[in-house]
């Protein structure tokens, strides 16, 4: 366990945790909500270790924490206006946004259906670490079905033998009353912005009325499911089949951790084929283009196969793109370097 009581302790602890993460190890870190198990988001092996420590399968991919809102456009294929407005108002903070992931980023977070859940935590210790490491896959520090740890002692009790180290940043959230039990700490609110309307897929620290000040068309999960049922009923009434029955986003594989008990974000994977706007080509020379390579991310077959409901309904996808238009995954070291080299950013 690494403490941060003094400036010297903090520096030493952050350096050690950074090195462990760079070496593909999993560690426990504090966030602004609860403690979380962290792994290098670009290391499939480390992400697998994270899931194993949680006792979770690939159907429950971890969210990704980023240091600054500016990283959003490097990891997301497209961000709708509502999603961007929510990020501008509530980041850093307890808001997780499910967006479409850049299809050519060389990572494997699990069965994401082409989406990624992103958040900028409002915790300076966490963000200082993120600036040193780059994006981290982070899920709440608890075994599946248990209450998320809100201090290092609780994290040690649940995960001490399953992770390499624990960064002790004190009780979380900062300023929490000692009488408030861990089970009452609210997790981040998770909003899926990949569809025509944003949907709250997990309630959390942010009040719905407050969120609707920025996103008036925001739906609760129950409202969204009711709309889908009504659409199904309408199709059944006129005898027409549902052309996207197999491609509609859902929450298969999710369990009881899609609740306040799983604090640092067990995000349901709701982004499915053909929901929401398609991305245009990135600006020439931009960070996004360099993360993707030389191709056009909106023209390659991988995007069509993952995102187009019409193609899924027809049982086919766009044909292979000419070799000159294909998007090659960016090597991990090159992708990571772009996050740290200011001259490489837009």
Automatic annotation (TrEMBL):
<keyword id="KW-0548">Nucleotidyltransferase</keyword>
<protein>
    <recommendedName>
        <fullName>L-threonylcarbamoyladenylate synthase</fullName>
        <ecNumber>2.7.7.87</ecNumber>
    </recommendedName>
</protein>
<keyword id="KW-0963">Cytoplasm</keyword>
<dbReference type="InterPro" id="IPR017945">
    <property type="entry name" value="DHBP_synth_RibB-like_a/b_dom"/>
</dbReference>
<dbReference type="GO" id="GO:0008033">
    <property type="term" value="P:tRNA processing"/>
</dbReference>
<dbReference type="GO" id="GO:0005737">
    <property type="term" value="C:cytoplasm"/>
</dbReference>
<feature type="compositionally biased region" description="Basic and acidic residues">
    <location>
        <begin position="221"/>
        <end position="235"/>
    </location>
</feature>
<comment type="similarity">
    <text>Belongs to the SUA5 family.</text>
</comment>
<feature type="region of interest" description="Disordered">
    <location>
        <begin position="221"/>
        <end position="330"/>
    </location>
</feature>
<dbReference type="GO" id="GO:0061710">
    <property type="term" value="F:L-threonylcarbamoyladenylate synthase"/>
</dbReference>
<keyword id="KW-0067">ATP-binding</keyword>
<keyword id="KW-0808">Transferase</keyword>
<dbReference type="Pfam" id="PF01300">
    <property type="entry name" value="Sua5_yciO_yrdC"/>
</dbReference>
<dbReference type="GO" id="GO:0003725">
    <property type="term" value="F:double-stranded RNA binding"/>
</dbReference>
<feature type="domain" description="YrdC-like">
    <location>
        <begin position="11"/>
        <end position="206"/>
    </location>
</feature>
<keyword id="KW-0819">tRNA processing</keyword>
<dbReference type="GO" id="GO:0000049">
    <property type="term" value="F:tRNA binding"/>
</dbReference>
<dbReference type="InterPro" id="IPR050156">
    <property type="entry name" value="TC-AMP_synthase_SUA5"/>
</dbReference>
<feature type="compositionally biased region" description="Low complexity">
    <location>
        <begin position="311"/>
        <end position="324"/>
    </location>
</feature>
<feature type="compositionally biased region" description="Polar residues">
    <location>
        <begin position="286"/>
        <end position="299"/>
    </location>
</feature>
<dbReference type="GO" id="GO:0005524">
    <property type="term" value="F:ATP binding"/>
</dbReference>
<keyword id="KW-0547">Nucleotide-binding</keyword>
<dbReference type="InterPro" id="IPR006070">
    <property type="entry name" value="Sua5-like_dom"/>
</dbReference>
<dbReference type="GO" id="GO:0006450">
    <property type="term" value="P:regulation of translational fidelity"/>
</dbReference>
């Amino acid at each position: 366990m690494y403490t941060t009581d003094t400036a010297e302790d903090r520096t030493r602890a952050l350096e050690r945790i950074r090195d462990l993460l760079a070496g593909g190890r999993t560690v426990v870190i504090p966030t602004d909500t609860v403690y979380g198990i962290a792994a290098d988001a670009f290391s499939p092996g480390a992400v697998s270790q994270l899931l194993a420590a949680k006792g979770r399968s690939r159907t429950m991919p971890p969210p990704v924490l980023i240091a600054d809102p500016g990283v959003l456009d490097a990891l997301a294929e497209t961000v709708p206006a509502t999603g961007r407005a929510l990020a501008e108002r509530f980041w850093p903070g307890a808001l997780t946004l499910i967006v479409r992931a850049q299809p050519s980023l060389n990572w494997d977070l699990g069965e994401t259906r082409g989406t990624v859940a992103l958040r900028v935590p409002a915790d300076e210790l966490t963000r200082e670490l993120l600036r040193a490491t780059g994006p981290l896959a982070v899920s709440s520090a608890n075994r599946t079905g248990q209450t998320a740890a809100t201090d290092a002692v609780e994290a040690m009790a649940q995960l001490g033998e399953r992770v390499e180290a624990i960064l002790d940043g004190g009780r979380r959230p900062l300023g929490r009353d000692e009488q408030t039990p861990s089970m009452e700490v609210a997790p981040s609110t998770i909003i899926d912005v990949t569809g025509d309307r944003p949907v709250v897929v997990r309630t959390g620290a942010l009040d719905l009325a407050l969120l609707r000040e920025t996103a008036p068309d925001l739906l609760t999960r129950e409202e969204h499911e009711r709309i889908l049922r009504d659409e199904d009923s309408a199709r059944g009434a006129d005898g027409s089949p549902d052309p996207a029955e197999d491609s509609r986003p859902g929450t298969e594989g999710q369990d009881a951790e899609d609740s306040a008990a799983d604090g640092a974000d067990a995000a349901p994977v709701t982004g499915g084929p053909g929901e929401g706007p398609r991305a245009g080509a990135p600006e020439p020379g931009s960070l996004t283009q360099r993360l993707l390579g030389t191709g056009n991310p909106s023209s390659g077959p991988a995007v069509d196969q993952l995102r187009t409901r019409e193609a899924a309904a027809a049982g086919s996808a766009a044909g292979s793109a000419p070799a000159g238009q294909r998007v090659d995954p960016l090597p991990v070291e090159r992708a990571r370097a772009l996050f740290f080299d200011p001259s490489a950013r837009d």
